[in-house]
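Ex. 9. Protein: LysR family transcriptional regulator.
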Amino acid sequence: MERDMPVLTHDFDSIDIRLLIVFRAVVFTGSLSKAARKLNVTPSAVSQSLTKLGKYFNHPLFTRTSTGLEPTDYAMELYNYVNAALDLLQDGVESLSDFDPATSKRRFRIAANHVLDLEMLHPLAKHIEVLNSQLSLSIYGLIEEDSRIIDSLQIDNNDVCLVTSKLAMASIKQELLYSTELIALAREGHPAQNKEIDRDTFVGLRHFRYAPGQIGVFERMQHTKVDDRDVIMDTNNPFNAMMMAQESDGVVVISKWLWEHYGSQFNLAPLNISFELPKIPLYLTYLAKLEESKANRWLRAQIKELVANIR
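Predicted structure tokens for LysR family transcriptional regulator:
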């Protein structure tokens, strides 16, 4: 049975468009706090906006559950209209926007694993500053779980993410920037040094596990969710892992780039392994709806140009 179009109890002309933006954010996130984060307002302000919007309609919009706010069937019908209208408005404004990197004062937002600060984000900031000193970057750390990556783009409004995870979502676009080679290291004088080590022997050694986003090296190699190494410690910081490895009989796997640029600070040496470690991909990740955005497209071009120059 076809549903009726949502009915207003007041004139449409009197609705504040900001209330519709809040409504869409709450339906999208299912949470007052997440919607507030996305809109950069307080949860209280979101709640007040929903109360105001509710006065315009003759149906309840949300019910509270143990996990957040659940939109009613009526609200979901309304959401379809509101979402289409706001998307159309945003697309129109975006198409008319004349982003000029030479004069813009825009601040771009990038979320990435923190090690990329060293490899490419610092050079990117310098590169952008040379082009226009009024442009700026904000860099945010990112734990690579699919839901957090998606939230980073859809809720935290980051322009792009740099991640090693491949996402299968129509709303997300990804471009492969490069693949990082890995190297296995142990302290000088480690019992496993100076002999060839097969995979089973290597797995049996104790490991300080580091990989971008906590993605296990052997999970990638075996295409499974199982990493059967004997792990002493998990860390998001490769320098911590290398420091611990040089003080013990534990081993660590890190990127060759990191080793070549910072390895001299540690009393470590490569292990002679008889198998090939997988390469870790890095994806330039962004919302599909921003693919033709002039500003986003320009930022992606700068990142790709920088990668071509430094690798």
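Check your answer against this statement. The mean pLDDT is 85.
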